## 1
Amino acid sequence: MRDVQLVSEQPFGEGGLLTRLHLLSNGLKVLLLRDPSAPVFAYQTWFSVGSRDEKKGKTGIAHLFEHLMFNETQNLPHGEFDRRFELAGGNTNAATWVDWTYYQDDLPASELALAVQLESERMQNLLVREHQVETERGVVISERQLRVDDDVDGFMSEELFRLAYTTHPYHAPTIGWMEDIKNLSLDDCVNFYKTYYAPNNATVVVVGDIDEQATLELIVKHYGGIAAQDIPKSVLPVEPLQTEQRLIRFRKPVLTDKLLIGYKAPALLDPDHLRLEVLAELLMGGSSSPIYRDLVIEKEIFSSLGGSVTPFRDPGLWEIAASLHRGHGADEGLALLDEHIARVVAEGPTVEQVERARARMLTSFYMSLKTAHGRASSLGESQTTLGDYRELWRVPQILRSITVADLHGVAQRYLSAAQRSIVIAEPSGEAEDEGDEGDDDDDLDGAEA
């Protein structure tokens, strides 16, 4: 086909499916995966822009613009975008995070033309005017108040990254600092759209019951005429090596102490990232894991405990979030956690622990790929964050090869108190809701519209 070339193809697992990456002449990348097992498809557009690309004083613009993308275009009045998807039996949403912004549509197989038409329309013909910016600014301000200013967990997460990063833009929250949100101008938004919402900064991912050739032809027809833009080269400062523990305390309206720890962790493409994920799962991934079993189930020091490694393009954090039971303070909880951490650093895990954690991680990986939506999300994030969708299949390869020595090694490399930041929330005496003491469900995903 004219104006498009096949760049690569890769088997999708072992079921006979094939992922193909195509490139249009204007730089748009198109990932297609045909799976006729159900008469549905997922259509996602991933833009390689997130809060890491924002300038000082302009934080939150990537997230604000995600909201603006659901407004009117040259050919669609306000509300028409969502209305057409709903009438077709589909749903649509979006999310912004540090390394990306993406838009997702899930529809019956018969509605492919609708998705291509509407998504290409808002990529090139969005109307960005003063009243729209002001309306969405108000929505984002309310969202920030709800999710950060009036939410202890959201506040602590923001403070952890502010504390852990002194130079790298991961320091700033994706939702933006309140002062910056209030000061973003119409010109800021127009320039952001013209710069980053370009075909050569995007990947369209289509997974499901599709005809690949017909899909590609539709995409070329609707996107092929959109002009490429000059995308600024993202040269970010390297975060200096952290050499001593950082700790900050806050008095907040909670009934019991809360603890949030961030150990410096490797970037997503580093094999150590997945090894550290396995170690986190091994140590506190459920009722059979040693730290969770000891401190939540047996000793009942913590009411909740969990950890995850941020899947960032640049080095991130291994976050550990915990809530204490009444009568137990954050310092006591931290000391008990440190005993377990010191043990794994000194001795490493057992073979049995590694096997259990590996099995849980492999199960989780394949379960995330059961649906068209899950497959599209995994492919799109790998292409956008790592630069190649085929990196997705490194995950089971690394998981199957991990040894006790590998996990002992990452424990020794990363679980040092000198490389961690800690945020503690202590009761201020103003808590009103007993629900504050319940289990936490920490949202580590992107900010959604």
## 2
Amino acid sequence: MPNLHTIRSRGYIYQTTDDEALGRLLGGKIAFYAGFDPTANSLHVGHLLPIMLIRLLARMGHKPIILVGGGTALIGDPSGKKEARKMLDMATVSENASAIRKQLSSLLPTSHEALFVDNAEWLCEMKMIDYLRDFGSRFSVNKMLAAESVKQRLDDGISYLEFSYMILQACDFLHLNEKHGCILQIGGQDQWGNIVAGTDMIRRFKSVQAYGITVPLLLSSSGEKFGKTAEGAVWLSPQRTSDFDYYQFWRNTPDADCGRMLRLFTELPLPEVEQLEKLQPPALNRAKEILAFECTRIARGEKAAAESFLSAGAKFGFADPESKIQTSSNIRRVNAAEAKNSAMPTAKIARTPGEDSVWIVRILTESGLCSSGGEARRLIKGGGAYLDGQKISDPDLKIPAEKLAKGDSIVAAGKKNFRKIILE
């Protein structure tokens, strides 16, 4: 069972319907599917774990079927939700489905062509009486009430609309099994009841065995839900979360979670991950740079990963500027010295003749980071001003003109606003 062992050793498996059978099947070639409901026009990092498993299974030679739930998104999955989802109209769902399909296409390896399907094609054509007679008659309400996705909503109430979601997802699995020979569904930990309902329906209708794998619900070492920040969700779309902020989300991974995140969200060899997670602070920060680079590369591309790495390093400092720590990541090819030429915002400050130093307040205002001298002083006193990654505490600080003339000084106001300063 080498393939199943690899999947499990990276941490992708929370539960399976049959370990022994899956071990045998994954040694050959099978068709599998994962579904994504287009409830927004972008996925977020909470969706990444099944995507990473899809990528791994595809590299093993298995056929991915990606279901974009244009039909089920009109219903709303109650799994993991304390209240009903906001109802979306068909036009919005259709627009979201198109955006997510494009996004998922870019996230999958180009050498492994995936089959994309939309369950609106069959669910929206289904007749009510046929649905009740053909499928409703095969489901036990007692079993459905016992499902975790339903049980957790019983106290607050659950509509029949949401209650029917499990049957509709089971219909998806049956349809894909009949039309494409799909025998495996993967999904989040909260999808277990829905997946088992699908395998049971295939057994009842087709007298064949289908299987399921769920990936774990991720929590940080502090118990917080993975993928959330003070600003909200971290989106895979650069229109909703910038490349720099996406990179920084991964770069700010707590020390205790770094090794696990490298296993789950990069494709680095496991022996390399084991070496990287053994690093001690401050060297462990290089492992976090590698994590952030690789995650940004997968979601946004090599160029965005390199530019974000250089910009972040120029602002906060590089963990391994001479690349002494061994890695197979392409981060090793990105020279930290290139930070001077990265796409970082630049501000030019006019040099007064005979001036041998420049007041920090003047730099903050003339660079556009602050609108006035008073705002610059308040920023410094509040601990929000930085020079080359070091906090500025003295509002009377003057920076040597010789240092600024080199053109590699970075001044920042807070975590996101920064400028490379060029003294002319």
## 3
Amino acid sequence: MALTGVIDDHMLQHYRELLDKEDAAFDELEHAYEEGDRCLFEADLTEWTVAAQRRLAYLKRLGVELA
């Protein structure tokens, strides 16, 4: 996999934003788990899953494939 020309400041900034959104969603998921709120947990799990999928889709569009 050649990433020459793919990794630049814009790419890193966008990736960092995706990571931050995923991290924030996981924090909410963790809080819902600790509080024992099943409905909120399931909603937060969906948000975290979507955030992770967006990050992985972005990497795929850049040509980065994870096994």
